[in-house]
Design goal:
This protein is α+β, with helices and mostly antiparallel strands. It has one domain: Electron Transport, Fmn-binding Protein, Chain A (Pnp Oxidase, Chain A), CATH 2.30.110.10. Strands 1, 2, 3, 4, 5, 6, 7, 8, 9 and 10 form a ten-stranded antiparallel beta sheet that branches. Strand 3 and strand 4 form a beta hairpin.
């Protein structure tokens, strides 16, 4: 994985930075938030649900929201074989962002977001082997709803043929994490006497809602029912 301290990729902007930061200050804060450990990347992948895939398109760049799965070496994204966004041969960028809360300062210039974010850069490989494709799709399914792959019907041969799965190497990535209170605790704005602090975001699963077409008496399986009330993705 790329060193996210001194060798940050230029595209990884800081979603929670002060609006008033000068280029020099902004660069310093970006470096403070950069993480270079592989474990930091895996933690962000494990915490996220939706990724945004930046792909070359006919009239520029297109950014496509998608779900994903991953293992120790690759992240997998899938879609229809008819999708123009899922074509190999060029470098793609996949971004995952987890918002942990708002950082409300005394000045709106110092407002920020506490977050965890990863950007993965790779030339994707289209997976054509059926067994490898099934293994990748299982990773996607189990990342979203652990236990569902063994509970629900597996993809048919026809469905598998209609699905394109991309594998993106995790070798080149950058990770950024912003935590903690506002940065203006030692600024002249303290004299304003305004409240400042963090507003945490704590998403939790609700109760399962049955399909209206579901016959009476079919209860949600334990791997679904047990998630109700729990954190969506523990930190």
């Amino acid at each position: 994985m790329a060193d996210t301290g001194d060798a940050l990729r230029p595209g990884h902007a800081e979603p929670g930075g002060p609006l008033s930061a000068t280029p020099r200050t902004r660069h310093r804060r970006l470096r403070e938030q950069g993480r270079s450990e592989r474990a930091d990347l895996m933690a962000v992948l494990g915490a996220g649900f939706v990724a945004h895939l930046g792909v070359p398109a006919e009239h520029g760049v297109m950014v496509v929201p998608t779900v994903y799965g991953f293992d120790d070496h690759h992240v997998y994204v899938h879609g229809s074989v008819a999708s123009q966004s899922l074509a190999a041969g060029a470098a793609y960028c996949l971004t995952i962002t987890v918002v942990d809360g708002l950082v409300l300062a005394r000045s709106v210039f110092e407002h920020a977001v506490n977050y965890r974010s990863a950007m993965i850069y790779a030339v994707p490989r289209i997976i054509s082997d059926d067994e490898e494709k099934l293994a990748g799709l299982r990773l996607v399914s189990e990342h979203l709803a652990p236990g569902q792959w063994d509970y629900a019907r597996r993809p048919s041969r026809k469905e598998l043929a209609a699905t394109r799965l991309l594998a993106m190497s995790l070798d080149e990535a950058s990770v950024k994490v912003r935590t903690g209170p506002p940065d203006d605790g030692d600024s002249p704005d303290v004299a304003l006497g305004l409240w400042a602090g963090e507003l945490p975001l704590d998403p939790r699963w609700g109760q399962p809602v049955p399909d209206p077409a579901l016959p009476a008496g079919i209860r949600p399986p334990a791997h679904i029912a047990s998630r109700a009330g729990n954190e969506v993705r523990p930190a």
